[in-house]
Amino acid sequence: MTPGKPGPEIKEGKINLSYLREISEGNEAFIIEMIEMFLHNTPEALEHMDECFKKKNWEELRLIAHRIKPSFAYMGLSDTQKMLAEIEVCSDSKTNLEKIPNSFPIFIRPANRLSKSLRSNLWS
């Protein structure tokens, strides 16, 4: 990432790496590693979530939402993290499942744009 370069935007706002910097105690190698893991794992996980929703595989959907939630917290995307938590709860209890399709477009497309933007910023 280029210092001073504006961060990538997502529908809910910009990423904020403050939390990641805090837990890493400023260790840039750790920060880059976490961003690379986010870039590598998140797009595939989101695609798998979409497939699980279409197949009504609520248990797998819950597990994926639970697994990727922290990644969004590290990127400072708390609104997305909260949506994932809601998907996790709805999938687990099999209640309010009608909320899930409304959540997907809110974070999947922006998350994919975020991944592309992070990727270009990370190696520029």
Overall description:
This protein is mainly alpha-helical. The chain has one domain: Four Helix Bundle (Hemerythrin (Met), subunit A). Helix content is 73%, strand content 3%. It has five helices and two strands. It has helices at residues 18-24, 28-55, 58-74, 78-93, 100-122, and strands spanning 9-10, 13-14. Strands 1-2 form a two-stranded antiparallel ribbon. A hairpin with a 2-residue loop joins strand 1 (9-10) and strand 2. Helix 2 packs antiparallel against helix 3, helix 3 (58-74) packs antiparallel against helix 4 and helix 4 packs antiparallel against helix 5. The longest helix has 28 residues, at 28-55. It is elongated and about 40 Å long. The model is unreliable at 1-13 (pLDDT under 50).
Question: Could you give the topology of this structure?
Answer:
Layout: E1 9-10, E2 13-14, H1 18-24, H2 28-55, H3 58-74, H4 78-93, H5 100-122
Antiparallel strand pairs: 1-2
Helix pairs in contact: 2-3, 2-5, 3-4, 4-5
In short, what is this structure?
73% of the residues lie in helices and 3% in strands. With 124 residues, the protein is mostly helical.
**What summary fits the major beta sheet?**
2 strands, antiparallel
Query: How would the global form be characterised?
Result: elongated
Taken together, the total number of domains comes to 1
Q: How is the largest sheet built, in terms of strand order?
A: 1-2
| Helix and strand element order | EEHHHHH
- CATH class (first level) name: Mainly Alpha
Tally the helices: 5
Essential attributes:
5 helices, two-stranded antiparallel sheet, 2 strands, elongated, Four Helix Bundle (Hemerythrin (Met), subunit A), disordered N terminus, mainly alpha, 124 residues
